[in-house]
Amino acid sequence: MVALHLVAAKSSPASLLQTAKEEKPQIETNRTKKKLDRKSERVELLQESSSFGARIRGVSNDQQNASHALDKIESDYKYKLETTPKFVEKSLDWLAQAQHEDGSWGAGVSSSQQVRDPHAVKGDPATTSFAAMAFVRSGHTPKKGKYKDVVRRATEALVKVVEKAPKEGPRITNLTGTQPQAKMGAYVDTSLTARYLARVLNEFPKKDKLRKRVDKAIDKCIAKIQGSQQKDGSWSGGGGWAPVLQSSLAGQALELAQVAGKQVDQKALDRARDNQKGNIDPSSGKAKADTAAGVELYAFASAQRATAAETWEAHDLIDTAKKEGKLEKNAQVNADNLRKIGVAQEKADKLAQSVSQNERQQARVQNDEALLTGFGNNGGEEYLSYLMTSESLVITGGEAWEKWDEKMHHRLNKIQNPNGSWSGHHCITSPVFCTAAVIQCLNTYRDTKMLRNAALASSGKQEEGGNGKVAAK
Fold first, then answer.
1. Angle 414-138-456 from CA coordinates, rounded to 5°
2. Contact present, 171 and 230 (Cβ < 8 Å)
């Protein structure tokens, strides 16, 4: 039986923000018979795979390259590149309603994965920062946008948490057992909070008092992240079911802090990237899943995210050299040409290796359905992996990015819950976490310049119009 990696299970009424009374007309009056037939076809298809299937499914080589069954189901949605469709706007509204009065969001505890009501769980920093990032990536800041108050309240809540946290140690919260912690590691609150605060920092006016607090909170989080890094470049010391994801998020936090103008230990960032890239076996192109709970997708997406930054840097160096007449217009991005323009041999070899690895991963992620199956159905970890793949591809750009973005829009649209959210069906089941991941994934194009600037920050360069500034070297 073919394993399905995009699964939409029925949610209980308690898990939805809208009432059953509100849902009834939505189903009975807003759907034509044709649409109902399509829904029945989708539900029947999705029921072929158990909600809590085996961790690793056997998939034949033919199935790996075959079209996914969901792609065969008709849909009225018309994809348009670099736009935010109405179904994503609906998810933002749901996520705003899911916010707690204190500005936080929660994913719930790992021992109660069945609880889907966002107001029945306690807020936690990891989920709060992840949800807040969804709004900022969608164009809402503390000063502008429909959800500016949502963003500001979330930022204030996170800053308070960091301010109360002890200076020593890798953690910013005493909460334990949350879904993000249990699945990714105990340090994930620190990583995700730093990632968000670094992204939102330069959206605040310089005279805003909250900006100063955000600035100090980032410093505190970065010190904790750098201090807890393992010798191998990972952050696996925090445990978790798939610590490779925690390690990737910590590295991303360092990248975003650097482009925001913060002083980051470049050696720590280099070790983080090397660690993630090392999860790919160069000979086979397969990802090592020993720190990914046996799920190749998580390690694969993390490695691709690490190579994307160096791939963009290599292309930028070669393109600049062409414009300056130092290389022929048809010069390839390889170690020899990088050395010709003055890049040290060790770095030239490293960048060229990342380019080669990234190109191989791009080709595989577009076509290998066995890889995208992940655990066997969607949990928050799958959605996070899709998000990281979107970021990797938007950094390098081109046809590969456009093809992937269209695929994600069509598939994720088909499995959205009626109230606008998305849910997980193993491990991270939280609709808040899953919805935040999907929104970031589908709105990745809005952060293209920022993500590319983060890739170039190590060399002191950035594009105009990016949301950040590079620290002076």
1. 110
2. no
Q: What angle do CA 261, 434, 216 make, to 5 degrees?
A: 25
Encoding tokens for residue 467?
């949301």
Residue 320 CB contacts under 8 Å (≥ 6 apart), including other chains:
none
Structural domain total, the chain: 1
Q: What is the mean pLDDT of the chain?
A: 84
> Using CA atoms, how far apart are residues 446 and 203, in angstroms rounded to an integer?
14
Task: From residue 145, give the alpha-carbon distance in Å to each of 39, 132, 149, 152, 397.
Answer: 34, 13, 9, 11, 27
Nearest to residue 361, comparing CAs of 330, 395, 316?
A: 395
Q: What are phi and psi of 41, to 5 degrees?
A: -65, -40
Distance, CA of 82 to CA of 444 (rounded, Å): 9
**Residue 174 dihedral angles phi and psi, to the nearest 5°:** -90, -5
User: How many Å separate Cα 6 from the centre of its chain?
Assistant: 17
- The Cα–Cα gap between 120 and 134 comes to 21
Range of the domain at 389: 93-459
Q: Are 281 and 296 in contact (CB under 8 A)?
A: no
Strand partners, 109: 178
Q: Over the stretch 329-375, which tens digit does the pLDDT of each residue have?
A: 999 999 999 999 999 999 999 999 999 999 999 989 988 888 887 77
| Closest listed residue to residue 182, CA positions, set 243, 230, 237 | 243
Is 77 inside a domain boundary?
Answer: no
In a domain, 10, yes or no: no
Q: Please check whether residue 269 lies inside any domain of the structure.
A: yes
Query: Is residue 381 situated within a structural domain?
Result: yes
Contact 145, 132 (CB under 8 A): no
Q: Do residues 124 and 189 touch, judged by C-beta distance below 8 A?
A: yes
What's the rounded Cα separation, in Å, for the pair 329 and 401? 23
Residue 45, φ and ψ in degrees, nearest 5:
-65, -45
Radius of gyration of the chain (CA): 21
Does 13 have pLDDT greater than 70? no
Q: What is the CATH number of the domain that holds 150?
A: 1.50.10.20
